[in-house]
Amino acid sequence: QSALTQPRSVSGSPGQSVTISCTGTSSDIGGHNYVSWYQQHPGKAPKVMIYDVNKRSSGVPDRFSGSKSGNTASLTISGLQAEDEADYHCCSYAGSYTVVFGGGTKLTVL
Amino acid sequence: EVQLVESGGGLVQPGRSLRLSCAASGFTFDDYAIHWVRQAPGKGLEWVSGISWNSGNIGYADSVKGRFIISRDNAKNSLYLQMNSLRAEDTALYYCARDTRPGIADSRMDYWGQGVLVTVSS
Questions:
Q1: Which of A30, A73, A84, A103 has the most crowded CB, counting CB atoms within 10 A?
Q2: What integer pLDDT is reported at residue B107 of this predicted model?
Q3: Size of interface A-B (CB pairs under 8 A)
Q4: Is some CB atom of chain B closer than 8 A to the CB atom of A97?
Q5: Per the CB < 8 Å rule, is B115 touching A45?
Q6: CA-CA-CA-CA torsion sign (A101, B39, B33, B100)
Q7: How far apart are CA A10 and CA A57, in angstroms?
């Protein structure tokens, strides 16, 4: 069980698009379609934004989208807004009833 | 309203034990799997353990396997984490989080508690 690999930080201007990558292995991301993405604002509990690779949770704007190719999953946020500034964590089922998270990515809206 | 409230945290010396609890309300507890997820200060999320609706399937992170035990009491709408042989690196905010399904073979957690702080230090 090794943590998934995410960039430590990404940034973008309002209205732009950003993509956050999340790289794992064939045992986790590559082997299952159970990838999720969590948004976490400072001092708050995480909130699931995307689940099952590309499904949006209820109430999540369609500016948020998820995808997967091989062992890498991606979260794309289009039309960046100030309130999107937060930490984003990817997560995948890793088999044998285990789950693994990425190290988290800090999104800065310039 | 779905609520998850963790308790039992605190300051504990290395090598000692601590038992966390998570009280659930606002939903049918035994319809869902539940997870423990922790976050060390300034760090990312780390999945600790998960338990299916009927305790039939349980998983642990390698970092806690053999030291932590997850359990649930559906009659009391409660989840527990018995933490033994605690180490400094177990210091973190511990969250309980509800899965969206009865089993734990996925990664979608839709409701989270506010967390309970565990500090392991001499």
A1: A73
A2: 85
A3: 79
A4: yes
A5: yes
A6: negative
A7: 23
